[in-house]
Amino acid sequence: MRFEIMRLDDRNGDAVDSTVVDASAVNKIVQQAAALGQRIYIRPAD
After folding, report:
1. What strands lie across the sheet with 2-8, from one edge to the other?
2. What is the CA radius of gyration of the chain?
3. pLDDT, one tens digit for every residue, the chain (46 residues)
4. pTM, whole model, 2 decimals?
5. DSSP assignment of 1-46, as one string?
6. Residue whose C-alpha is closest to residue 40's, from 8, 10, 12
7. Whose CA is closest to 32, among 43, 21, 12, 2?
8. CA-to-CA separations, 40 to 6, 11, in angstroms, rounded
9. What pLDDT does 46 receive?
10. Dist. CA 9–CA 1, nearest whole Å
11. Beta partners for 25?
């Protein structure tokens, strides 16, 4: 399964950029975002 991960702007919550990754990469990206204090949005890719 593939997921789209969008990095969100801290001020207004708008998507700054996005990437599509395999399910196996989601955990690593979530951990990196948490370590950096980034806000992300994850949804299944079409």
Report:
1. 15-22, 2-8, 39-44
2. 10
3. 999 999 999 899 999 999 999 999 999 999 999 999 999 999 999 7
4. 0.83
5. -EEEEEEE-TTT--EEEEEEEEHHHHHHHHHHHHHHT-EEEEEE--
6. 8
7. 21
8. 5, 13
9. 78
10. 26
11. none
